[in-house]
Amino acid sequence: MSEFLVTIRPRYGEVDRMGVVYHAHYLSYFEIGRTEFMRSLGTPYAELETRGFRLAVVEAAVRYRRPALYDQELEVAVTLAQVGRATVTFRYELWDAEGAVLSSGHTRLGCMDEDNRPCALPRDVYSRLKAGMKPGTSSSETS
Predict the structure, then answer these.
(1) Are the CB atoms for 84 and 141 separated by under 8 Å?
(2) Distance between alpha carbon 57 and the CA centroid of its chain, in Å?
(3) Is residue 68 a part of any domain in this protein?
(4) Residue 4 and residue 88: Cα distance in Å, rounded?
(5) In angstroms, what CA-CA distances link 25 with 2, 29, 63, 143?
(6) In whole angstroms, what is the distance from residue 123 CA to residue 18 CA?
(7) Residue 6, SS3?
């Protein structure tokens, strides 16, 4: 799988008085994309939690290029950048309807057990994530 796309529209409560999306909401849009991408791979977050695993964001970055606007149709493009034994890194781009990149970024998530201790990703989840990577991207056995 090369990239996964999710269509969203900023809601009124996500914008300022000028109709521009507040900067923190971009991470929420990335999360929507990541959650749906994982679901498409057969690994919904809710299922991971019922199995006693958590994926916590340990690093996040956003680069803002152009403003996203109220009710504008947007697409979040998600790719897997790296899959390690206990971590996974996702990359994102937020596009407008004309295909212009409004923002880009990444998140790195670490796997934890029910007691919030770091642990390895379940083998089946690791395999599904690796299978969802774009050809030519890296995977690491030591993360």
Answers:
(1) yes
(2) 10
(3) yes
(4) 16
(5) 25, 6, 13, 28
(6) 47
(7) strand
As a whole number of angstroms, the distance between CA 108 and CA 81 comes to 9
Residue at 141 is within a domain: no
Q: Whole-angstrom Cα distance, residue 41 to residue 35?
A: 10
- Residues contacting residue 46 through CB under 8 Å, at least 6 positions apart: none
Task: Give the global pTM.
Answer: 0.91
Assigned domain for 101 exists: yes
Residue type, 138: S
Q: Provide the domain limits for residue 61.
A: 4-134
Q: What is the CATH number of the domain that holds 44?
A: 3.10.129.10
C-alpha separations of 35 from 9, 12, 142 in Å: 17, 22, 24
Give the number of domains in the chain: 1
> In which residue are the tokens 């403003």 written?
67
pLDDT of residue 142: 41
Check residue 122 and report its DSSP letter: P
143 domain residue, yes or no = no
Give the confidence band of 133 by pLDDT, cuts at 50, 70, 90: confident
